[in-house]
Structures are given as C-alpha cells and as structure tokens.
Specification:
Layout (H helix, E strand, L loop, with lengths): L2 H13 L5 H7 E10 L7 E5 L1 H14 E14 L2 E12 L12 E13 L2 E9 L1 H7 L6 H15 L6
Length: 163
C-alpha cells in the first residue's frame, strides 16, 4: 500500500471508527497489538486486541466524554508506519476511573504510531498526557503549585526559611 493509503487508514482510526462500528472491522486486523505508554512505569502496557474490543473502547469513551472527537494536527508516514499527532476534545459526563462526572470540558494531546499491513492496523502505540487529563479534572494539582508546595516541605525539613 502507498503512504497515502496508510495515512487514510490511520485517519479513519480517529475520524470514522469511533462513530462507525463497521469501520473497526475494516481498519483493524483480526488480532493486533495495542501498546499504551502510561505514567505507572517505564514499560509500555501491551495488550492483544481485536476490532470488537476497540469498538467497545470507543463506546466507553463516548459515554465518558460528551462530544468526544479528535482533531488531527499532523501525520507522517514512512514504510508501514504512520505517526499521528492529535488533540482530543470532550466534556466529562460519565464515571472515569472512579471519578464521577465533573462536567469539565477537556482537551488532550498525544501521538499514535500505527503499523499498517495490507490496509489493516496490526500495531498501535498510544502516547498521550494522562497527567494533564487528571489536572483538568481537578484530581491533580497544577505542576507549578505542586512544585511550590514540595519546595516549602523540603526547606522546612532542612530548617530553612520557606519565604
């Protein structure tokens, strides 16, 4: 497949598949690897996935994030790989990892890298700023405020003035 054809498959991941169950069967291999870089360690979490589980994940995101959609910022293709830099948007309207709905409109950004063979996604790397998502929902403090608090704690432990 050409680079442009591979980019079209990657584009469908963001613009078609979240809203069209049939698209998942069209763009994903029957079994593919999904790698997620998370802030719980340095090793990516990898799961074997399939079109049906991916559609279920899309449906779950739609239930949590009202008006959830992606904006593609940049695409680069080389060989069987396509990199997409994206921004997502949505309003927190459903329970998210135990957090009740906040009604907060959020934006997030990330990069996905796809490996596409014969028009099907066989591997996905999903990398996005999960900490920023939690900060927007008010679960984590802004980094500037967290650093200032930690600085004061360390200075106090050392017996130094904090002001």
């Amino acid at each position: 497949m050409s680079l442009e054809e591979n980019k079209a498959v990657a584009r469908r991941y963001f613009e078609d598949a979240p809203f069209n169950p049939a698209a998942c069967d069209e763009i994903f291999a029957p079994s593919f690897q999904f790698h997620a870089i998370v802030h719980t360690g340095v090793t990516p979490q990898t799961v074997e996935s399939n079109p049906q589980s991916e559609q279920a994940a899309y449906e779950q995101h739609q239930a949590i994030w009202g008006g959830w959609h992606f904006q593609i910022e940049e695409m680069i293709a080389e060989g069987d790989r396509v990199m997409v830099r994206w921004t997502s948007h949505g309003t927190h309207q459903g329970e998210f990892n135990g957090l009740p709905p906040t009604g907060t409109y959020t934006t997030n950004s990330g990069i996905n890298i796809f490996r596409i063979v014969d028009g099907k996604i066989i591997e996905v790397w999903d990398i996005y700023d999960r900490l920023w998502a939690w900060q927007q929902l008010g679960v984590l403090p802004e980094i500037k405020e967290a650093l200032a608090k930690r600085r004061e704690e360390l200075l106090a432990q050392q017996g130094q003035p904090t002001a």
